[in-house]
Amino acid sequence: MISKLLANRLRDCLDKCVSEEQSAFIEGRSILDNALIAIE
Q: What GO MF annotations does this protein's record show (predicted)?
């Protein structure tokens, strides 16, 4: 139960802590996004 509480609090903070260039393991972002940018 404590881990669920901490996970929910961290989820709110992640958008501020993780830059837009990082996309892996972030809900709503895909690790393939960076691969597509690299191909362009």
A: DNA binding
Can you give the residue range of the structural domain that contains 20? 2-39
Could you give the number of structural domains in the chain?
1
* pLDDT tens, per residue, the chain with 40 residues: 899 999 888 887 877 787 777 776 777 777 777 776 667 6
pTM above the 0.70 mark?
no
CA 3/CA 8 separation, integer angstroms: 9
Tokens of 3: 């881990």
Residue reference for tokens 């191909």: 39
CA distance 34 to 23: 7
